[in-house]
Each structure stands twice: as structure tokens, then as C-alpha cells.
Design brief:
heterodimer, A: mainly beta, six-stranded mixed β-sheet, five-stranded antiparallel β-sheet, 11 strands, B: mainly beta, four-stranded antiparallel β-sheet
Chain lengths: 112, 114
């Protein structure tokens, strides 16, 4: 079955710096890779996703890149702000397209 | 407003006392699932349901039951809770027939078993 590994588990950056979170997956047939943000005490919410027919997708300060050959995808946050502080989860499809397997999460702290 | 609603938000109970956490969605999603979130372990799937009357085990199903009698509801049942089931629980739903779509999460239920 699908296995998703996420690194690092914690990340601390200075406000204004960039943050990068990386995930690897095992199933080469996977074709959808979402990222969820979970603020303290709240539910995970989708912030960006990418499908396997593109290598990069941007939405303002957030971007996701996908390397299908190496089976890894990354979340990039530029010009980080304190409100970016949260836990971020990557995910990939499981043994069926509607099942999502989540990474173990990255706790991002943006220092003012 | 499209949403997934869980109740209760917080629950403290004693070992062995049966409890149910409710989950309801208003988006006509076929697929619903339950996760538990523990520090350093991410979101682990407990049970999922592909449609009414169709449920299956996830990665950590021991000690839990579910039912799917209606499309919108997917309750999580702990017949005899134990302290190792103390955790943060999330219900989620998404379309099964429309691929690569967003999963929506409930607000979470923080359960403490003493």
C-alpha cells in the first residue's frame, strides 16, 4: 500500500524567510498530492494541491513542486509570516483514488 | 454552508463506558472516514465508508466501530473505551466518484479516557 513520509517534523524560521517541507510517496501510480494546514486547535484545511500532469503550482506565497521520477513533492512558503505557524500535512492517494494517506506532519514556527 | 460537523468537541469519560461521537456532512459525499491524531504520528485512519452500508477498516481499527445507515452520518462508536484511545479525533468526507477532490474535516473531538 501507499506510504507517505514527511520531513522535517519541526521547522523554525525567521519571519520573511522561506520554508520548505518535503514528502516522499511509494506508489508510482499516485496522481494527486494535496497539502493541508492545521492551525492550533483547528481542523486541517486544504491549502494547495497538485496533480501529476504538472510539475509545479503556485498560489501567492505558496507553491508545490512534484518530481514523479523521484516520487517526492514539496511545499514551499516564501516570505513567511507569523500566521503561517501551523502544522502542515502532505497526503497521497491510498490503494484507491478516494482514500488519502497522510504524512506525519510538520510543525512550522515562524519567529517574529 | 458546506461543512462536516462533529459532536461533541470535548469529552472526558471513564474506562469501559460506551460512547459515540457523531459526524454529519451536508455535501452529499459518498466517502467518509475517521482519523485519530496523536503527537508525532500524524493522521491515522480508523475506519472509512465508501457509501451507505459499506464500511471497512483503516490502519488502526481496534477498539472502534462505525455505522453508515444514512449518507450524511457516520458515527464512531467506542464500545469499551480505554486510556490508549485518548486522542484527537477527526471525521472527514470527500467525493468518491469525482477523483482528486478536497477532503473536508470536522472540527475535531478531543477525547480523554481516564
Amino acid at each position: 500500500g501507499e506510504n507517505v513520509e514527511q520531513h522535517p517534523s519541526t521547522l523554525s524560521v525567521q519571519e520573511g524567510d522561506s520554508a520548505v517541507i518535503k514528502c516522499t510517496y511509494s506508489d508510482s501510480a499516485s496522481n494527486y498530492f494535496p497539502w493541508y494546514k492545521q492551525e492550533l486547535g483547528k481542523r486541517p484545511q486544504l491549502i494547495i494541491d497538485i496533480r501529476s500532469n504538472v510539475g509545479e503550482k503556485k498560489d501567492q506565497r505558496i507553491a508545490v513542486t512534484l518530481n514523479k521520477t523521484a516520487k517526492h513533492f514539496s511545499l514551499h512558503i516564501t516570505e513567511t509570516q507569523p500566521e503561517d505557524s501551523a502544522v502542515y500535512f502532505c497526503a497521497a492517494p491510498g490503494d484507491s483514488s478516494y482514500k488519502l494517506i497522510f504524512g506525519s506532519g510538520t510543525r512550522l514556527l515562524v519567529r517574529p | 454552508e458546506a461543512q462536516v460537523t462533529q459532536n461533541p468537541r470535548y469529552l472526558i469519560t471513564v474506562t469501559g463506558k460506551k460512547l459515540t461521537v457523531t459526524c454529519s456532512q451536508n455535501m452529499n459525499h459518498e466517502y467518509m472516514s475517521w482519523y485519530r491524531q496523536d503527537p508525532g504520528l500524524g493522521l491515522r485512519q480508523i475506519y472509512y465508508s465508501m457509501n451507505v452500508e459499506v464500511t471497512d477498516k483503516g490502519d488502526v481499527p481496534e477498539g472502534y466501530k462505525v455505522s453508515r445507515k444514512e449518507k450524511r452520518n457516520f458515527p464512531l462508536i467506542l464500545e469499551s473505551p480505554s486510556p490508549n484511545q485518548t486522542s484527537l479525533y477527526f471525521c472527514a468526507s470527500r467525493f468518491r466518484t469525482v477523483p482528486n477532490t478536497e477532503a473536508f474535516f470536522g472540527q475535531g473531538t478531543r477525547l480523554t479516557v481516564v
